[in-house]
Specification:
There is one protein chain. The protein is an alpha+beta fold and 175 residues long. It has 5 helices and 11 strands. 21% of the residues lie in helices and 31% in strands. It has a 7-stranded antiparallel sheet with strand order 3-9-8-7-6-5-10.
């Protein structure tokens, strides 16, 4: 794994601040588990403090008498990995490349799949520089938003989190 990282990101420890360098590189992997592992390794190389953003998940049933109406253990909600939704824990550092997981503002082309580099981190907003698409170089602010899966009609989960994922490496499908 270290050889792969070194081949795709040569001199990473000195060039990680160059968004053009980051824009031209990426690793593809078949599974989200591989993506999460390598993204964690790459994030640890960037100097500075990691800021961890925890999601706020709630469970509600559209039918109050449904089979899930009395179930709401936080551990269950936080452990779910639902396609298209952010993870419960999002670890970021200034200088880390990220990818948007949802369309946020299509009028300025801030859409699903846009790559960005984190420039500042607040409690409710992440500031980032766009590194892909037609708005390259622009600074944008990404808020926490409510996300719900559309493929679980009997179980409505609402997750409040940044619609971001680290993007040193991504799945083949996301690329």
């Amino acid at each position: 794994m270290q050889n792969l990282i070194a081949a795709v990101y040569p001199n990473f420890s000195t060039k990680y601040t160059d968004w053009l360098y980051l824009r031209e590189r990426g690793i593809l992997a078949p599974t989200n588990d591989d993506v999460n592992e390598i993204n964690s390794i790459m994030l640890s190389v960037i100097p500075g403090d990691v800021k961890t953003y925890m999601s706020c998940n709630t469970l509600s049933n559209s039918n109050d008498c449904g089979p899930f109406s009395d179930i709401e253990p936080p551990e269950l909600l936080y452990s779910l990995k639902i396609l298209g939704l952010s993870n419960h824990c999002l670890h970021l550092k200034v200088g880390a490349p990220v990818i948007l997981l949802r369309n946020l503002k299509q009028s300025i082309r801030l859409c699903n799949g846009t790559r960005l580099v984190v420039t500042k981190m607040g409690d409710r907003v992440v500031q980032a520089k766009v590194v892909s698409g037609s708005k390259v170089g622009e600074t944008v602010h990404i808020p926490r938003i409510d996300l719900t899966p559309f493929n679980l009609p009997d179980l409505q989960i609402r997750l409040r989190q940044f619609s971001l994922k680290l993007a040193f490496i991504m799945t083949i499908n996301k690329s």
